[in-house]
Amino acid sequence: MDRSVSDGMGHGSVSLWNGALNKENNNSNENISTSNDNVGPVIRILEIEAKIDKEPTQIDESSSAVLKYRTPNFRASATVEISPFSDNEAWKVGWIQACTDMTFHNTYGKEGYTSWEFPELTSGKQSMISDCDGRHYPWYGSRNETVIFKGPCDRYQTATVYMNDNFHPHVTWRNPANRHQLDPNLTHIVRDQSFYVWLVAWNMVTMKSFVMQTISWCMQLEIAVDPRCPLGERATLISNPVPRQPIILDYNVPIPRCALTPPCANSAQMLVWHPRRGKPVCVIPPVWKSQNRSPKRDTKL
Length: 301
Description:
mainly beta, 10-stranded antiparallel beta sheet, 17 strands, 5% helix, disordered N terminus, disordered C terminus, FAM78, Protein FAM78A
């Protein structure tokens, strides 16, 4: 078993990865036989957990330029076991995450609001967007988030994969679309974001993949801001300080192609100003716009 994953290991085409996903989604959610004739190894989940830390979002007003906040962490862990297998194969097991919905509005008095958006979702072209690290598509990460089992091996092997996620943005006190704004005028923040997380087993030789478990989670927060107050006394969390807990589903949600390939959420997001009157204006364009034709970013498996 090799817990280290090199950037160059397991490269494959997007079409091979997408074609490999088991269309039946392995709805048992407990263990999978990796071949129809049961010759290959059996991979099963020994233990799985998903939770969000039971603590409120922390607000930081130490900067005169931006309001900062940090949400509690979403955490997932799974211990998996693979049976002995004689073939000279390698299996990668790990987490894949995709965002399905996002509302992220920062209101500036009666002038309007800024909105972080994914054009792929707002246009309806995609149902989800990959939330990988942008380097190891489609995996959420390449350290504790994945593990590789190498054969041949004559014993049972176990490993635990972990992932965690939270939000810690900076929101400007002043309307970023108005360069002449001198006084703070941020009055309200609302964020509502939803995700699917999949535990996936992938044969790095045959390119066949299996969804082992699906988790659904969301993060919702609302902050009221009085820009007339002194710095350090402006913002108040008004949403429920106890986060809604994730759900480990008793069925598997299919993984669409768009959740496995570029762009990822960090490179696709754009900041849009929605004035009270007039048309929306792009304040910060998506990074992905200048990269979407690069063949080097097709996949990093």
